[in-house]
Records
---
Amino acid sequence: MTAVTDGIDLTGLTAGPAQTWGAIRLVPLLRPIPITELRLHARLYDPDEPSIVHTGPRTAYLSYIPHAFVATWTTDTTPVAAFGTQLRGSADTRAPAGIRLASRRRMTRREDRQRLRFLPLHLAMEGYLALQFGGPPIAWQEWTRHAVTRGLSPRVEASYTGAAIAGLDDALRVFEIHPDQCGMVLYVADALAAAFVVPHPDDYRALHPTLLQDFYGELLFHYTHLYPAVPDFTPRLDDTVITSVADLRAQLAQVAADWTAFHALMADGLLAAGRLTVTPVQRMGRFTLGPVPARLQPRSRKPHRRNHHRRGRPAGLPQNVPALGRPDPPGTLAVPTRRHRLGPRRHRHSTRHRPGRTGPTSRPRRLRPPAPPRHHRCPPHARPKTAQPSIESGAHEVNLPGSCRDFPACVGFGGCLDRRRRSAEERQGPLATRQPGGGHIGFLVARSRGRPA
Amino acid sequence: MFVNAAIAATAQREFRAGAAAQRLSLGFLHEYVLGNYRDLYAATLALDVNDLNAAMVVTNLLRTAREASDEQRAVEGRLIAARLRSLPPHRVYGVLRELRRLGINNRRTRVIVRDWVAARPDPAFDAIKYRRSLSVAARHAHLPLPGEVGTVLFDWRRPKRYETPILEAWRRAHYEQQALYELPYTVAEGLAAQHGIDRARFLSGIAPKLTDGERLRLQGSAARHRVEAVAMDLAAAPLTRLAIYALSLPRPERARRRDELTGALQAAARRAARRQAGTWGRVVAVLDDSYSAAGSGVKRRRPLAVALATYYLLEALAADFTGLWLHHRGDPLLVHPIGATGLGVRIVDALALRPDRLVIVSDGWDNDPPWQAAEVLRVWRTRLDPHQATSVVHLNPVYDADTFDVRRLAASVATVGVRDAEDAAALVELARFATGSAGFDELRRHLADRVERFLNTEEAVS
């Protein structure tokens, strides 16, 4: 299903002049002829409402408020989380006060013949996890045995919503949307933070504020505090060759052309990215939904390269492919159907498809056996989105369940989560407390049962 | 230039800066100019600075009177008295409340307050409409209040009836619905709510008592409640107010009432242009209708309204006028704030027409591409028009809190702040000081001249 393609087709999109606000640089992507057959709109879920997403038989994950315990199911069959400890009389038959949990079936779901609902942030995160949390690309028996007997090590990923990035809300508010604008490339302190493209300018105007609810990496959060402002790039006209108004106009046209080329450069090869792995998720007429194309090489990155990567330079390039406006665009990546068997699956991959690529003893530096639980820090990633995520808070954590993988989806990982939260807070230091309302939302990928065979 | 700020800044939320930032920035600027150039600071009272800044200048001068010499104080006293007479009464009462808050109470201040209150045409009316403010001022400055005015402010429970008609109406309006319609609108509105009077009935009853500003403000409300009595002749309204009203209407309604609104705007513009109408030669305007012209929640579409009003004013002033919007084409009445600010290309379009004057109305955030207008104007000045056959002026309705000035387009082009488009003609004349081409001495002379004229006219009126 996964395919390798030669980059993303951006036919019809041109970059406009950037608008800056503090450390944020916003580059509009313009599309003179909009795509009218495909339209996107946001479906708003209540941001305070935790959601369960069923991704397959016996598999679900939950975006979760850490200090709630999932305790009961209401009589009207909607799940509820008890809100803290409650003292109740023995005769009290009322249901305890709780938070409603909304259940979503699958991350992408065809709701009608010509309508598809998908959770863009989750899809992107999914593709990202598949890319970053797999096993080693080599046949490595010890790792395999460990993964099969003890499970994968739990790992934590922290990210920030756009609302936590200083100045991003103002930058998006004062941004002057072009009449024919279909997309946006967002830089924080001139590090690429997000790229977001939709088919039609009306959609863009409606979805422009959702950039504020996206995932952003921790480093971007720091950058906005470290770098007060980025400079404007001011075009300089060559006045020696101008002798008439027509010359002046020619110079202005030249400047406009230069802007497009300049932004292709600034996006660090994003717009002209080379080989990408893609797996389509859904097919919608001549469009394909598939998130997060990824470059092929990121496995054995050197430390400095990894550091670079953290700044939001794309290894997993987020592009909303249906928006790119061509039939079956190549930039797609997969949400593997059996996502949570990543470890073993990798193992099978490595033994079957790439035998003997490297000796089993040569251990890559970054990927070690998971015995002591480790917390790998992962790069922030940019990501497009088209609908409201079900998570909204200062920071998110994504936990891949390792040792606690056998717990049913909703119950019982409080202890594990606490442990992870602690370690996350140790890592993050004061950052976690800096969030308004201490808003940590854990979001946990849990499989209800069944070990990888 | 302080005058730019004092004309444009209102310490309210703008598109890009919050109210707190605006207030802080403006407060600092006042302190700075007061501390370093006290004479010039006082002289700004003679210029067309807006009411908020005039009130701030008066307060600051009275607050720091101790630092002024005797001659300075004499001039300042005359300027303050003259300016207070031309300010709207609620602004002056604001100043008086502020004086009390700051604890400024000396013989000179008391005399200034006493003279101003004594010059009010009807103290009984003030005692009703500005009841709290007048009582604060009277207590603070030990004012002698005539007849029943003192009673209604400080001993209003005792009398069974008043001799003064408006005071008696105010007393009765607490018990009798009909008496309420003899009171000013702002006072009657609260009492009407107490009596539970239906809004439509209240509006039709109070219509004769409305001031012009209130009447214009209530047009939408009256149309909603189908009250005919509030209808007014739009042509009598001030130009910028009228533009704000026109832009507050939805576009289909603007299109439906095009003739009426356009006629009213043109009449108001002719009135504002007065004798200068048709004397400006060939004029081209570049008017900013980018998204930032939408202003803020408290100044809805104000920059756009200023641009629209300038359009009609220049149309009246010029013999041959062309107005170029950045995005909008066609009937200027239907203009809508949208899109980026690409001033550079439009300025080239305007300069290609070779006008005598080019007027740019924009908030100065040129971002498509950034600062291109500056480059275009620089090249125009150096290469294409070295003899300055075209005079270029940039009018900016938005105060930039970060730079303590209105945002400039280019160093070579005069930028002046603008609050109401009616003043645009005078501001364009003032623009030669904004480029820095005129020296400091010349500026002082000019200001002294303005102060002299201002005092003479004001004192002749009073």
---
Amino acid sequence: MIAPIPWRLALATALPLAAVLLLSCTGGPSVPDSAADAGRPPNLEPDYAGVVVPPNLAPLNFAVREPGSHYVVRLSGDRGEPVAVASDDGLMEFPPGPWAAMLEANRGGPIHVDVFVRGEDGAWTQYRRVTNTVAAEPIDRYLVYRLMWSRFNTCGRLRLIQRDLSSFDETLVLDNAGFGAGCINCHTFRQNDPADTLIHTRGGSGGSSTILVRNGRPARVNTVTGYGLTGYASWHPDGGMIVCAVVQVRPFVHPAGDIVMDVIDMDATLVCYRTDDDRMDVSPSLSRKDRLETYPCWSPDGKYLYFSSARKPWADASAFPPRQYAEVRYDLVRVAYDAATGTFGEPETVLASADTGISMTQPRISPDGRWLLFCGSPYGCFPVCHAAADLYLLDLASGRWKPVAANSDKADSWHSWSSNGRWVVFSSKRGNGLYARPYISYVDPSGTFHKALLLPQRDPEHYRSFVRTYNVPELIASPVPVEADRLSRLVATPMEAESRLPMTSASPEVNGGIRYGEGRTP
Amino acid sequence: MLTVAGEPTTRSLRRATAFYGFLLAAVAIFSFVHIYRYVQAPLVYHQATRLPSRVDAKAKTVADFLVYPGGAVDGLADLLSDQYHRAVPGAVILAALVVLVVAAAAVLSATLGLSRRAARLLLPAVLLMVLLNQYVDPTTFALSLAGVFLGIAAYHGLADQSPRRRGAAFVVLSALVYYLVGEYYLLFASACGLFELLRRRWVLGAVGMAAAVGLPFAGDVWLFPLARYIHAVPDSWAARFLPLYHSPWTGWQPFVAEWQAGDRPVELGLSLLAQCYVTSTGAALLITVFLLVLVVAARRSRAEPRPNASRDDRPSGNPRWARVRRIAPQAILVLVLAILPTANFSPQRRSQLRIDYCAENRLWQDVLAEAPHCFDLYDTALGATVNRALYHLGLLNEAMFRYPQQIDTLALGDYLKDGGDPQLLAQLYFQLGRFNEAERFCHESIETFGERPAVLYLAARLNIAKRRPEAAKVFLRRVRRYGRYRQDADDLLRRLDADPMLESDPRVTRLRELALKDDFAIGNQVLYADERWLRPLEANPSNREAYEYLMAFFLVSRQLDPLIARLGRAGDFGYATLPRHWEEALVLRDALAEAETPSPWRSHVTPPVAAEVQRFLVAYRAAREAYPLDAHAQARALAAQYGAGYCYYFFFGPGGLAYPQGGQ
């Protein structure tokens, strides 16, 4: 007879599972009564010592890098129940429920980390207490980032991932396998709200595309211009307009030195996409013939558009790479915008590269409008390539600027503010110099950045052998409202895309009659 | 206990059991010999493109496998595949897998009321052998198949139960089979559904068919959408075949769209097949046919009860002839199935793989020994690998024309355009000290062709040379997942912990001395020809590899004057005598110019070489007179005697003793 087999198998499966469940429900490990004092703090990996933790962040699982045969870690705060975990290999994983309760109970206060290690001789050692601080203000719950290989000049598997920061759950936003391995190059949200989202893709089966999610409803729109495809973008706060950069981006290689792959915009300009009436236009203030304009960013009140702008030192783009590539340094520029008339004012320089000595890109303004966080690098428009790239904070009230304390000696770039302005997430290559990881830093009301903490993972050793880079991390308050499958279908569906802004169109004039597009490379 | 329908007597049961035992033993021996002698398990291991998951006995690692459908089989497959780098254990495991599948097929056959003596039981085994012949790691496939066969057998055992009980059993078995084998569940459910449909049990049949597609689809889309991504599991054949991954449409849309656009339908069709992994899809189709045959045969066997096997009812006539008639088709089928794996095996393909394997393991002599066996498959990558072996053995300019040569074998100008693996360029650039370009190609190789141990290891060595120990450790921790590399990776990790920059290692110091010093910018192209070696030579005049490759390039591109102009540097690299091909080039240059080329090395040309060049020139003139307009005929006439020399290459190319075709 065959019939009993499934039941036996079911029993055989259920029993071990029940045993595991039973074991997991037993009380936490006990902390040793006595231990020798190590006289120093423990080595933790990732370095979660002295950090400010969002009260709604997933457990900071870490590895204790000290020799020993058994490890116990106790978390305690001024309020709430302590949490203790143990392991034989030093990999400490905290239970999500008690962890969340501890953070909630200790909002605005310290939590202490006590590490006990039992040596091979059976004697316990206690390391100096590590104290972290739980911030009062939460971080936006979701983080969206591109997960990709350390890209050079090919486009392999690339995914846009959405991580729930209160847990370790990841969900897929878009996978380039769904549309013929094109590139997912930009994702932009309106003021941390994914109900209004813009995603650009390049290549793939359906051709390059722009996916506009407006009030939660996705559509593929045509933003093709005579100058190229739209890229970096910024939503006007009222949602009626998106300013996009159109860049002729070209990679090249340095055979010697620290930088391997470099990227240069041979030409760049800004264009406007009006979401309400599906229309594109261009303003002379955003598109000067002798300038490279990129990285648009609206001020939270919608009265100014900030962007990076550099003098274009080459007239002839046929020679590539141009020998002046290292002379290109971007200024921070802004133009006033009159929402009533829909017109832009004249460009005014906020910070000149001639004064700062660095190329200033990726401007992002805090939600309260007080701070402008930008990335500074020795030259060019692609700071992630430069180990010297750092984040700088400009006080828009006083005009003073300074590097932030959370910087490292490796590339720090691609930053994003939380909707309450107390957190910044950025990509940093600290750690190994090659793969960027997402770091979270608390920004206090005085604009001081606190020690950055690495995005926690369930496996404390996750990053040690992870050969993908986390690129363009963006904080959002709620999950992206469109399923990956639907986005994928939109991208994969070919679309007739005639240029919305042909080069030959009646071009606006600026600076005394220079025709827009004159001298630009098609 | 499983009963064999239609074989009630003890004697026939004994016979069946004996035959079954014999069959399994024969399959085991034949599989082991074929794999050990011909396929060679280390080459299957070498060819594997899938990064194994962490293989250890920690509860967490085991739990990682158990959290997604198919994870159990994946985990076991990783554990077994990790042993394939050793020839004997690898062959034993692979042969055991083949036996396992045959045994599972026999159980299924018996449960369906069919004879376990039928030769069709060999079909899945042959399929596995054919996959092995193509160096496709069949471990997951074999384990899943065995699980599916046993699952179907278990379900079919309930054939006479009430529909309610069968329905309940189907649900339980579905959960179990899907959990164990993942998307291979498709086979289980469709076979169960078909079985019910053939018995006119329409509801259960429809449920089975719907579940076959629905459950894996739901699993991929809703239940475990990121399991494969998190565990780095490649899309299975079922996912690609149907395609169930994320959406039933997105996988096909690119092709459908392009097909509708009417561009190159034939090429698109071919790329569509390639995209679906022809071998895997073919395997899926064959297994589906196998299952169909079993289910339909079972149906027929039930509809037409087997004649009683008792002596009284046997047909009249010559019993011996009747026996022959009964056995002959089976014997023929067994013979065909036994011959198929051997006939399907390609020694040249194995040689090609062995060259790659030996190069990765720096067995340079073996590379050269294997090269003549696969001249028919000779391509740029193979030529470049042979040249690497020649260089490491100090024979590049001494014996390179014993092997086919073309300019691209050294220049590799069209190599990437033709879809070549950038890893080869990364290896060459790394040896030359062009670390940044090596890094670029290394990463492009990983991105395009996946994480393989050799390229991960190269990435680690590159980062060590570039003084990035932490990045090197990331790759070493990755590469240590491969059993073959684990010890080396662990050793290097320990050394990096002790001395992060490895300053005390003379090989690392030597490598760093080769590094280019002056930066410049190059566009998105591969540097062509001589500049690739000139730059490193300028950066470090003692870069022997750059010098030897540059000279080899001058030979291959027939640039005799620049070659002779640089002979003066030979002394710097310790040459007391000139390599043979340089001598040939000197004499040839003199003969062509009808004057002696001024060179301090002119006097070093050995008389036998000079005489041989002269003999060649005489023979060449004679061949031209004999076949004035037929360069191929001229080449054929001279190949046997002069095919390994530079003069032959100079006039006819591509050279190579066993590769006499040519002519310009």
